[in-house]
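User: Teach me something about this protein's shape.
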Amino acid sequence: MKNPLLFFLLLLFFFAAPAQKSLITRLDSLSAAYYQQNFQGVVLVARGDSILYQHAFGYADIDKKIPLRTTTLFKTESTGKMYTAAAIMQLLEKGKLGLQQTLEELLPGLPVKNAGKITVHHLLTHRSGLQSPWDHAAFSFKKVYSREELEKIIIDLPLAFEEPGKEMYYSNSGYILLGWIVEKISGLDFDDYLATHIFQPLQMVSIRHLNDTLMPPGEAQPYRFLNSKKYIPFTQGIGPLASGAGGWIASARDLWRFMQGLDKGKIMSPQTRSIMFSANNSLPADSSFRFYAYGIENFVNQPIQGVSYLGHSGGGAGFSIDAILDPLTHTVIIFCSNTYTNPREISSNYMRMALGKPLAVIQKPNAIRIYDLISEIGISEFVKNEKKYFQQLEIKPGEWFFVNTGDAMMEAKDYSTLLSWLQLGATYFPGNGFIRLLQSDAYKSLGQKDQ
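Assistant: First, the predicted structure itself:
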């Protein structure tokens, strides 16, 4: 052949095409396995500039049998913290703020506790000690709050710990404050800043506010599966507007464009990105860790041995979202579901397959598996031989396991089963207040007020 380069490229295509087809076949098998175990959602696997795989399985609307599409919009919840952190990093890069500047300097007059000590670094890494607005007893997800109302809630809440930087406490309030800092420093409304400096440059064309307390018809409606056969619509927790803490509605492709933009340095320099990914070079020295940097979580040698990846998940209001990036191979995995699940377990398995690593076991969440078994054999039989059944399902019962399963029984109005389940839980964890609270709710629902 006269053109050796063309010959080489043809050889590459000849060998690469079957390998890619094989990967797609295996990814299809993985999606089918998840669907068989009651999972549903949209998955996207990309490497560099190429989307290798997009697939939707399950329903956007279960009752109307409207299937999910690869373009379906989901409430993406806390994944939006990555946008807020990226905006802060852009302003840092332009010299408009510093990581050690305090709330008192950047938002003067806002009487947040410890405002003179809490820095931008503390806010970005969830080390401010501030709680989240929904930790306040008066907070409602259905209400559209003015800034003044949110300020009052954030100010009213007690601190999770007194000394900023002492420990980590996941704080949505901290990211709401970061959004206000973006507005103050840039002179732009937070939405306008993100649209101009992040969404439009990265061609995130579907992302927007919900502007309602219900998802638009035809888009992903939120659900919670109580067991394999029972589910409930989960609309009571959907807030209408996004903020610095997240809450945008978007497609899987929008999330991919953001992760690709981070990877390729489209919205900040490599030096600034390194500061963002490493929390200004404060990553642990351990060989295996999970660490929250600036709007990004780092996972090193766990859950996948030999792989370091980063990203952010989002959960709430019946949605479970994850977006992760392996910077070494430039592999991005996006998983979006309109049911409650652990999206990180699922996205990690797709990452394993994309990188040729052994897969983790695919099975339904433990709370669903145990409720399925109890529905089959009856609660009396289960309680009589509970150790045998826990061992049979390879479940080590923990406090939140009893609470989550009990909450599903409460939602199913299965009160008699619930009371027996909680009595069992109280023998394992007699001091757990949530178990006692659920017991009280069950007695109330049955009209047993004396109990």
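Now, about its shape. The two ends are 88 Å apart (CA to CA). The mean pLDDT is 93. If you'd like, I can walk through any region in more detail.
User: That's plenty for now, thanks!
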